[in-house]
Amino acid sequence: MAAPPKEIALLRLSAMGDLVMMLPLIRAIQEQLPDARITWITGDTFFPLIEDISGVDFVVVKKPRTLAGFIAFGRTMAKRRFDVLLATQASFRANFLYPFIRASKKIGFDPSHARDWHRLFIDKSIHRDPKKRHIVDGFFAFLGPLGLSQEVEKRWDLPIDPLAKDWVEEMFPKGPPLLVVHPSASKPERNWNAQSYAEVINRAQQQWGIKAVITGGAACDEIELGNQIHDLTGEKATLLVGKTGLKQLCALLARADVVVAPDTGVIHIASALNTPVIGLYAVAPSELAGPYNHPHLVVDRYMKANGGFVDPSLPSRIKRIRQGSPMSLITVEDVLEKLETLFLNHNSQTNIS
Known about the structure:
Blueprint: E1 7-11, H1 16-21, H2 23-32, E2 37-43, H3 47-50, E3 56-61, H4 67-77, E4 82-87, H5 92-95, E5 103-108, E6 124-125, H6 135-140, H7 162-171, E7 178-181, H8 194-208, E8 211-214, H9 220-232, E9 238-239, H10 246-255, E10 258-262, H11 265-272, E11 277-281, H12 286-289, E12 299-300, H13 302-305, H14 332-344
Parallel strand pairs: 1-2, 1-4, 2-3, 4-5, 5-6, 7-8, 7-10, 8-9, 10-11, 11-12
Helix pairs in contact: 7-10, 8-9, 8-14
């Protein structure tokens, strides 16, 4: 580009973890183009998580599911003009929103990640370093076509709502180390079993005197799994499944000393807040979407689940293990070993004292 863009639009509607993983890109743009105006077009479902981010204008929309929804989106965007659009979502629905966004330049994903005719709706593609396979690095590659450096520190600066922080501090004043277990992922094949979570909680309480909290959404399957774990612990954990909003959950993760969760958005919130997080992975490799700031704490059994073979191609071509029970390859001892690393290594970057 001849001159730095002044009006920059980004579109990322969902999901929760992806919204959080967008933050380093946004912070890097703010740092290198302080005079640019950034407009983030996003969905309404997870908006409370990001609405307090400084220096960003938001256009909040419902995901269009009908022709009328797309027309309504077009009306919303009709009077807006941008120098550049960062098309950071390659899905059927998102791709058909891009024609309604008026921008002089539209930058999207490289061919290996351009799904559902994505390349038809963009002018320029990013270039990814094949050695950097994580989603965060994929978003960061959008800096290149903007003429900005990717050799800058990745910052999240995810704000914590003051009222939510007060609520957490009242419920969980400083005391024993706080372990948050968030057992449910959006896809059931990514879930670990209730018995194993309960055993981790019970043994962590016996060995380190931790206080445990079980979190989750309000979906029936999440409540059921949370209740099972709670019952198996002898009701020794605080059960908050379906009882927190996004801002309260974020504040709780910031207060936690350690989080245990499968491949789900909570992993990325905790990592963004620099809360140590033990991620449980077997369906897909953690190098794609593991906790970016805590890769050393991951329990990853993807290679074993995939017969010892790791696809060397780009992330979009990674084989997901959807058959069988890949998460059963993760043992209680695997998780306790990571917890022990946290509790014994006083020089690690943890909240544990």
